[in-house]
Amino acid sequence: MTEVSSIVKKQKKLFKAGKTMTHTFRNHQLQKLKDMLIRHESEIYDALKQDLNKSSYEVLMTELGFLYNEIDETMKHLKSWMAPEKVKSPTSHKGAKSLIYKQPYGVTLIISPWNYPLHLALAPLIGAVAGGNTAVIKPSEFTTNTSQLIEKMVKETFEEKYITVIQGEKEVSEALLDEPFDYIFFTGSTQVGKAVMEKASKQLIPITLELGGKSPCIVDSDAKIQIAARRIAWGKLINAGQTCVAPDYLLIHQSIKVKFIDALKKEIELMYSENPIENDDFTKIINDQHFNRLIRSLDGENVIYGGQSDQSKLKINPTLIDDVNWDSPIMQEEIFGPLLPLLTFDQLDEVVEHLEQARNPLALYYFSENIQKQDWVIKNLSFGGACINDTIMHLGNNNLPFGGIGTSGIGSYHGVYSFETFTHRKSVVKQTTAFDLSFRYPHSKIAEKVLTKIFKK
């Protein structure tokens, strides 16, 4: 891994030279990033079609559109984000100015997953560039076409000593994690996230982990059934369920279960036809390994809708599974596919016990018209982020921080929160020399009296 070490050294040299520190430089690089995406837009659509069979709608909705918005928002506000923040100084600091400066970390490593291979490689990069860092991107080896395109685009747009892409499998990631990076940003599974965090801890490298988990979708008795069914079908089946914030399982109030299931089936068919396997706009499963994992998880389960599959196309029809419990195999890990288990409840406080089985999910969705119940869910349940009467849309608002809690992640990003993730808030006191307050020194006769007055007021 001599090449890896060489690149890291070159980037450290560039960073130490101070080239990335100015607003002009960072803004110019963000514009280059946007121009790069525009220039290669047709290739991006083709690569994502080949890797995941993504429709042009999904590419624009979940990959390119988000990146364009994020770049525009960052460029619009970057100067104000970079500016030192003046904060109040206490009486004991009379004559001083207290400020917070935004310091780049330095050389950053971005490890991205396969499910949104463009979006999740470049969204963190926007924050890294805005924060004044350099970056090494390690894209997923599972999305060959998109990863190769990212490498090609970055290589022709940026100097290797500033931003570069390094491809490879597990051993390449391990070699990268042995390098003395200044910050690591990882998106992927909880299991791999633990290994990344262990590696980072050996060098005390600060880290962001964007993971996942079993995100519940709760449908209460007073939910508007048709709207809830439509929004849940949409959120679950984008990218064939291969989304870290997809509804992982349904908790339906017993009184509306039959009506809701009927409505959900109709909405699925309206979006993807009665046989989505034959629908060219329905995303495929990433590879045979994940396809087989999903098929195995259906063994012995009560499939009440869907379940058909075609391994030659790597597609599985949207599938509803009834009569599951927390001992069922399908409830043991994040599903990451178009399979949706159904559980029921009678009283809202029952959902607390369900969420204890898979604590701190990345997302939570609650459908109800009752404001008091909505507030109860928000205040009493732990999750990374949520939507009330919707799914996934919180991710698309770059004014909101996106991230998990505990097993679903550490840290957050999007918009200003990406800038904050990739910068250290450096505290500085600028003290006056025009005068010197004697009470701060131990030989002062009035020190104790003045300090008592200051601190016990």
UniProtKB/TrEMBL annotation:
Coiled coil residues, start to end: none
This protein's record includes keyword NADP: no
Give the top-rank taxon of the lineage listed in the UniProt record for this protein: Bacteria
User: Oxidoreductase as a keyword?
Assistant: yes
CDD domains, alphabetized:
ALDH_YwdH-P39616 (cd07136)
- Annotated InterPro entries: Ald_DH/histidinol_DH (IPR016161), Ald_DH_C (IPR016163), Ald_DH_CS_CYS (IPR016160), Ald_DH_CS_GLU (IPR029510), Ald_DH_N (IPR016162), Aldehyde_DH_dom (IPR015590), Aldehyde_DH_NAD(P) (IPR012394)
**Residue intervals of the Aldehyde dehydrogenase domain:** 3-428
Entry keywords, A to Z:
Oxidoreductase
**SUPFAM superfamilies per the UniProt record, alphabetical:** ALDH-like
Family membership = Belongs to the aldehyde dehydrogenase family.
Put simply, this protein is called Aldehyde dehydrogenase
Q: From what organism does this protein derive?
A: Alkalibacillus silvisoli
What lineage, starting at the top, does this entry show?
Bacteria, Bacillati, Bacillota, Bacilli, Bacillales
